[in-house]
Amino acid sequence: MQITEIKLVEIKMPLVHFFETSFGRTYERSIILVRVTDSDGAQGWGEVTCGESPGYSEEWTGSAWVTIEKILAPLVIGNKVDSAADIAGLMKWARGNRMAKSGIETACWDLEAKRNGVPLWRHLGGVNKTIESGVSIGIQDNVPQLLEKIRTEVDAGYKRIKIKISPRWDYDVLKEVRREFPDIPLMADANSAYSLADIERLKSFDEFGLMMLEQPLAHDDIVYHAKLQAQIATPICLDEPIKSAEDARKAIELNSGRIINLKNGRVGGHTESKKVEKVCRESNIPVWCGGMLESGIGRAHNIAISTLAGYTMPGDVSASKRYWHEDIITPEVIVSPNGTIDAPEAPGIGFEINHDLISKLTVRNSRLS
């Protein structure tokens, strides 16, 4: 494989409904799409999943654009590698910037799968054609609004409900949710909104029988999470601090949590995701695919990686219509009434790109060669 051109396209997509976490409220997504072209003219698509501001991670749309344009693309373009799995190695010189790297790396996996005439999920080593889907529901204006949204998603068949929490929106909210929905698979995502000083409050969540409590403490911590996990019954799910297979090994050794949310962008792409999945699977630590409000391209990559054997819990891979009035892929991602998604059999990511819609949504683009 030899990449000869990388095209960046930034689009703006308004959300169907605002999405709020402890970081803030989002009404519109600025998304960087990456198209790679090889020396034979074959093309693949990826997506940079960082947010519009450096809240979730140090990366954001503006920084990722410049990083790819000025640093990462020159490291990749023109250099030959044996396979898409080697693309990450070309960018190793640049530290961090994993979401920017993932945009390029996943696009190369799509390209390679298309060239080989196989669906990406099979090319990655996936074994589960059908994956289970969960939903993530942000902080709402009031509890009745939250309960209404949960009812809608439960009726739609989703296998797991995740709600965002913060110190102003936690125990009493969880209590009302459990009163209304005593038996649904329920988890809470804190997005690093707490500290060990809140341990009694976090212990109180045990009464709700949650599947997991996601990232309650600092975004870069695995030490205090181990102390917290030893004192609460609810399984802790780690998110932000797991950026590599080595991070996963350390967290598992420390007993920092019992589950890992594995996001492609956060670890730098499919190659590292496969390594993290292997480490966790061999240690009997379940993983699931987290979401970053991706467009259809990022969502397609999430479907593909979620078919690996270690992804044993419903992920944040839900239907396009939950987020977008119209998605940039066809067909759009659909969740069955049973809360499942079938991985497509077409080569690559398995979806066609809606070029006309991308053109309408584009705010800037750049061709690098």
Structural features:
single chain, 369 residues, alpha/beta, 7-stranded parallel β-sheet, 4-stranded antiparallel β-sheet, 15 strands, globular
Overview of this structure, please?
- With 369 residues, the protein is α/β, with parallel strands linked by helices.
- It has 13 helices and 15 strands.
- It has helices at residues 61-76, 87-90, 98-116, 120-123, 143-155, 171-180, 199-203, 223-229, 245-254, 264-267, 270-282, 296-305, 355-361, and strands at 3-21, 24-38, 43-48, 130-132, 134-137, 160-164, 186-189, 213-214, 236-238, 259-262, 287-289, 329-330, 340-342, 352-353, 362-368.
- The strands form four sheets. It has a seven-stranded parallel beta sheet.
- Helix 1 packs across helix 3 and helix 9 runs parallel beside helix 11.
- The longest helix has 19 residues, at 98-116.
Backbone structural class: alpha/beta
Number of strands: 15
Give the end-to-end Cα distance, rounded to a whole number of Å.
Answer: 15 Å
Low-confidence stretches: none
β content, as a range?
Answer: 15-25%
Mean pLDDT: 96
Range of helix content: 25-40%
Strand order of the largest sheet: 5-6-7-8-9-10-11
- In DSSP terms (H or I, runs of 4 or more residues), the helix count works out at 13
Largest sheet: 7 strands, parallel
Estimated radius of gyration? 20 Å
| Envelope shape | globular
